[in-house]
Amino acid sequence: MRVVFLSTFALDANVSLINALKKKCDVYFFTEALYEIYNFLNKNKLKKTISKGTEVDELQIFHNLLPLDKTYVVKGTRNANVLEKLYTSYKVHQYIKKINPDFIIIDNYMLTYFSSTLRFRKKMLMIVHDPFLHSGENFLIDRFLRKIHFKLIRNKILLNENQRNQFVEYYKENPLNVSSSFLSVYDYLRCVKIKETDPLNNFNILFFGRISPYKGIQFLLDAFLKILSDNEYPSLTLTIAGSGNFDFDINDYKKYSRIKIINTYISPENLAELISQSSVVVCPYTDATQSGVIMSAYAFRKPVIATNVGGLPEMVEHNKTGLIIKPKSSQAIYEAILKVYNNKELAKEMAENIENIYFSGEKSWDASAELFINALHKIELKSE
Questions:
Q1: Which of 295, 333, 351, 369 could potentially form a cystine with 301 if both were Cys, beta carbons 3.0 to 4.6 Å apart?
Q2: What is the radius of gyration, based on Cα positions, of the chain?
Q3: Angle in degrees, CA 275, 276, 277, rounded to 5
Q4: Does the global pTM surpass 0.70?
Q5: Residue 156 shares a structural domain with residue 258
Q6: In a shared domain, residues 96 and 145
Q7: Based on the domain organization, do 138 and 73 belong to the same domain?
Q8: Domain with 201 in it: what CATH number?
Q9: Residues 290, 311: contact at Cβ < 8 Å?
């Protein structure tokens, strides 16, 4: 079975998923270099509109995970440059026609692959990363392109089961056309060299990821101020790392020496080091789908404190791989942090559970890839 995987930005999950899929089928991977912040690819280094993976320096580190001779990097252009974007789409389509895939997996609704979407839509499986657009990010262009692609591509797969029924009902989808799988650990972060430390000597609480209103960062900061006011936990520190604009005034928080705010693009090397040196990762989201942040934390066996929203309870098993708390509550975050801090044995057990479940167990990438293969076979049966 020959499968083409069409992506625009993210390498994080795709590197691992493709590594698992290539054990089961013949996989060709296309990704777009547009903004370095999304997939660490500098488009200005690309000499051609479409470059082979073996020609792209930034991909060489992933040679054990990606089939670089079957990987293609598209030199991206913004959707606003419609004519240039559609020309690029045409050129990509010529490559895909030569490959002649049995199926196509697509993880986006950009114009980059629109020519192929029109031609191959009946054999496409669309990954819907966000079944519902996040609060503060419901942009007109996103809604427009999303609507078109949802109409064109019948078969879809979500990355959590929790929202499947709601998705089917909201978008009036045929339940038989909507499958689900899940994210597993982000192996790409283990490819970079980092300096290992003992996170239990200095207990660092870490938030990382794109700064956005739905991330609930202020609730975390206020919880940490409560910890500081206790004057009982001198070894606790908090790091907030990621690019984007805060929707509240952070100046009052910056004056505390035990709060470190890194408001910039975080490279894979820096991210890997931040996670490895943390003791617990907090996802204080006010709404969510699934979370690559959790899977990045799990790559280093770090327990996660996450709110009970979207598909997060599927990813964080309460008292097993982390803690699930109610959203929009600084008090709940405060109590959860101290629970992990005061119970080192619990933190150790959580790390062992992450290892057993996600590296080789029922939530491994091999298990996730099997659900993708099943979804592709469903398309095959419908076409017979």
A1: 351
A2: 21
A3: 90
A4: yes
A5: no
A6: yes
A7: yes
A8: 3.40.50.2000
A9: yes
Q: Map 287-332 to HEC letters.
A: CCCCCHHHHHHHHCCCCEEEECCCCHHHHCCECCCEEEECCCCHHH
- Burial class (CB within 10 angstroms; exposed 0-12, middle 13-18, buried 19+) of 175: exposed
The answer on 255 and 122 residing in a single domain is no
- Furthest-apart CA atoms within the chain: distance in Å: 68
**Residues 228 and 153 both lie in one domain:** no
* 65 in Cβ contact with 23 (< 8 Å): no
284 and 165 in a common domain: no
Tell me how far apart the alpha carbons of residues 270 and 156 are, in angstroms, rounded to a whole number.
34
Residue 253 half-sphere exposure, CB side, CA atoms within 13 Å? 22
Domain that holds residue 339: 188-359
pLDDT tens, residue by residue, 7-65: 987 788 999 999 999 999 999 999 999 877 667 888 889 999 999 999 999 999 999 99
User: What stretch of H or E contains 208?
Assistant: strand 203-208
> Treating both helix axes as pointing N-terminal to C-terminal, what angle do 365-383 and 12-21 enclose, rounded to 10 degrees?
70
209 and 348 belong to one structural domain: yes
Q: Residue 124: what pLDDT? A: 97
